[in-house]
Design goal:
globular, BACK domain-containing protein, mainly alpha, 2 domains, BACK, 239 residues
């Protein structure tokens, strides 16, 4: 499919996306992490991006708790940070963003006390597309002190000044944009089993499979093309 996109066969690419979502839901579920990274290596698979992101925001552990989280494309991470319905506490999102940024720069010291001004600038540059989407003003004071303050040098000076002022005097106006709080409506799934059963997927645990499969099926039923007849789909593929 990536080869198809290289030649800008937009119509065929759309049909391939539709075919995957329509007939390969189980395969997408089993190979979710691989599929997710592949579609974000290019920018033209919007149907699959939306399809997968609708699942990830509900079950963020599928991506954030994987061993290869560090290899997640920046565009994929940013697309999730933009979502108001990402089902994860904001401080946890921040910690994952920091983890991802540091993993892109292996030369950074492991001890934060040893970081130089240049080290913080490196991390700030790496995360420049991610930082604007953190909901700083919906964190608690303890979360700001424990998680944000150690990395305050990667934030714009005005933003840090506004965060500081917000907790000292919440009613005073600030210059920074206050993004809406995320509406977390469900509990996050527990971390994946470290040693899944041999016959099952290495991407998700067996305990989560039924819930995710139901979510996939529900999503499919809501798609406008889902009720097309098999004959119509066969005719489409002959084009």
């Amino acid at each position: 499919m990536l080869a198809t996109n290289e030649f800008e066969f937009e119509e065929l690419t759309n049909k391939l996306e539709t075919h995957l979502i329509d007939t390969k839901a189980s395969w997408l579920k089993t190979h979710f992490s691989l599929v997710y990274r592949s579609i974000f290596s290019k920018n033209n698979f919007k149907k699959l991006e939306n399809f997968c992101n609708d699942i990830v925001v509900k079950y963020p552990n599928l991506i954030f708790d994987t061993d290869d989280f560090a290899s997640l494309p920046e565009s994929a991470l940013v697309s999730l940070l933009k979502r108001n319905d990402l089902q994860m506490k904001e401080v946890k999102i921040w910690n994952y963003v920091i983890k991802w940024g540091i993993s892109q720069n292996r030369a950074l010291p492991t001890n934060l006390d040893e970081w130089s001004k240049e080290n913080f600038l490196t991390l700030k540059t790496t995360l420049q597309q991610c930082l604007p989407h953190i909901r700083y003003f919906h964190l608690s004071g303890d979360e700001v002190l424990d998680s944000i303050r150690p990395y305050k040098k990667i934030l714009d000076k005005q933003l840090w000044k506004d965060i500081d002022q917000h907790f000292l005097s919440p009613e005073r106006p600030i210059k920074s944009i206050i993004l809406p709080a995320r509406f977390v409506s469900i509990e996050e799934l527990p971390p994946r089993t470290k040693e899944p059963k041999e016959h099952f997927s290495t991407i998700i645990s067996e305990d989560h499979a039924a819930e995710i499969y139901e979510d996939l099926e529900k999503h499919l039923r809501n798609l406008s093309w889902y009720n097309f007849s098999n004959e119509s789909r066969r005719n489409t593929w002959r084009l």
